Amino acid sequence: MAKVKPFKGVRPPRGMVTQVASRPYDVLDSAEARAEAEGNPRSLYHIIKPEIDFAPGTDEHDPKVYEKAVENFNAFQREGWLVQDDKEHYYIYAQTMNGRTQYGLVVAANVADYMEGRIKKHELTRRDKEEDRMKHVRVNNANIEPVFFAFPDNPALQQVIDTVTAGEPEYDFVAPDGFGHHFWVIDSPELIDTVTEEFARIPYLYIADGHHRSAAAALVGDEKARSNPDHKGDEEYNYFLAVAFPASHLNIIDYNRVVKDLNGLTPEEFLDRLASNFTVEEMGEEEYRPESLHRFALYLGGKWYRLTAKEGTYDDNDPIGVLDVTISSDLILRDILGIHDLRSDKRIDFVGGIRGLGELKRRVDSGEMAMALALYPVSMKQLMDIADSGNIMPPKTTWFEPKLRSGLVIHKLDD
Predict the structure, then answer these.
(1) How many other C-beta atoms lie within 10 A of the C-beta of residue 38?
(2) 309 has pLDDT over 80
(3) How many angstroms from the chain centroid is the CA of residue 90?
(4) Which of 96-105, 326-335, 349-358 bottoms out in mean pLDDT, i.e. has the lowest?
(5) What's the chain look like in SS3?
(6) How far is it, in rounded angstroms, from Cα 99 to Cα 366?
(7) Binning pLDDT at 50, 70 and 90, where does residue 264 land?
(8) Residue 353 confidence (pLDDT)
(9) Short-list 237, 198, 243, 241, CA closest to 104
């Protein structure tokens, strides 16, 4: 069963939250972070992207960059830009995109739950990326940024969310990207107890986004436990920062592909090869978006095509085989275009659905790419079924939006 606890969050004063809060470290590069933080010493980028405080081109993995992160974290607290709550709380963090709001509970999740598989993952992680975030957690002795969890809907937890969010939020602002962010502090002892007790009835939590941050946070906590001869299990380092959303609140959007060449084929030959496994229909110049599972949108030569996978090309009883990303990876990218490793092949790139079909068209029309493939998005049920089965999704399968804003609350590992 899932074990969570309240914690003494480290947070910006209400009047500073828009200066402190930032996008997550992994959705922008150093130059973009430098530009966004320009003229703002309170930006969290000085902690999560501290290379911006050095000359452009500085290696973000240089030891002095990690040292700068903790120097800045300490300075933010000294200056009062980040202040620790004096009592343990849970928090509620809500996000609004396109008129739709999703509400998550901010909790300290349990390291042992991750290590023992009660926090389930659906993606592989890369050791180099884990190690980068582990260094960041170690030097700061804190989880600066949260991970993004989902859990099966729970009526009692929904009641807590409804009760607390009926009140005035602690933070309420619209970020530069147009997404709304809303944040409440749960300070009722009864509601805090309810959150703890209800999570203890939930068998599993699911990582929606932030697999590397989850792994790094849990591994550092495990390191601390192993190196402490007086370890008891209730120390703060046994927990890490997460925002957990009811599954029904979340919406996975499409994650699409663009490919540089047709592997020596002409467009006509490529379409002919597709016809063996797909029904191919020309849709014209108007954007076409797949409207159901096992349908794909192909953009090639200034035209959109609908591809419908034929019976027998997928297995609806296989949690991996049923995925459109598997069908397209095997039958189009591998068998026709010769792309075998989505993680390393330089001929393919990936475009989050938040950028729209117009971005796919633009990259093909510019001549940068030869074709684009838009996929029907994975469902939360598919994600949880795959995690429950112990399988791993193919790379670049899920895209969650909006991303969690960093800097609304931080979890220290020693208090």
Answers:
(1) 10
(2) yes
(3) 21
(4) 349-358
(5) CCCEECECCEECCHHHHHHHCECCHHHCCHHHHHHHHCCCCCCCHHHHCHHHHCCCCCCCCCHHHHHHHHHHHHHHHHHCCCEECCCCEEEEEEEEECCEEEEEEEEEEEHHHHHCCCEECCCCCCHHHHHHHHHHHHHHCEECCCEEEEECCCHHHHHHHHHHHCCCCCEEEECCCCCEEEEEEECCHHHHHHHHHHHCCCCCEEEEECHHHHHHHHHHHHHHHHHCCCCCCCCHHHEEEEEEEEHHHCCEECEEEEECCCCCCCHHHHHHHHCCCEEEEEEECCCCCCCCCCEEEEEECCEEEEEEECCCCCCCCCCCCCCHHHHHHHHHHHCCCCCCCCCCCCCEEEEEHHHHHHHHHHHHHCCCCCEEEEECCCCHHHHHHHHHHCCCCCCCCCEECCCCCECCCEEECCC
(6) 33
(7) very high
(8) 85
(9) 243
Asked if pLDDT for residue 68 goes beyond 90, the answer is yes
Q: Is 34 exposed, middle or buried (0-12, 13-18, 19+ CB in 10 A)?
A: middle
Name the residue among 152, 145, 160 with its Cα closest to residue 209: 145
- Written as six digits, the tokens of 121 are 């993952």
Segment 51-77 shows an average pLDDT of: 96
How confident is the model at residue 394, as a pLDDT?
80
CA dihedral 198, 201, 203, 209 (to 10 degrees): 0
Encoded amino acid at 13, one letter? P
Rounded Cα distance between 211 and 303, Å, is 37
Neighbouring residues of 218: CB distance < 8 A, sequence distance ≥ 6 = 111, 114, 115, 119, 240
Radius of gyration of the chain (CA): 23
In this prediction, residue 310 carries a pLDDT of 97
Whether 399 contacts 252, CB under 8 Å: yes
For residue 343, what pLDDT is reported?
Answer: 79
The answer to whether 277 touches 309, Cβ cutoff 8 Å, is: yes
How many whole angstroms separate alpha carbon 349 and alpha carbon 372?
10
* Cβ proximity of 411 and 88 under 8 Å: no
Amino acid at 205: L
Which residues lie below 8 Å from residue 34, measured CB to CB, with a gap of 6+? 45, 49, 52, 56
Q: Provide the whole-model pTM.
A: 0.89
Residue 202: beta bridge partners? none
pLDDT at 127: 83
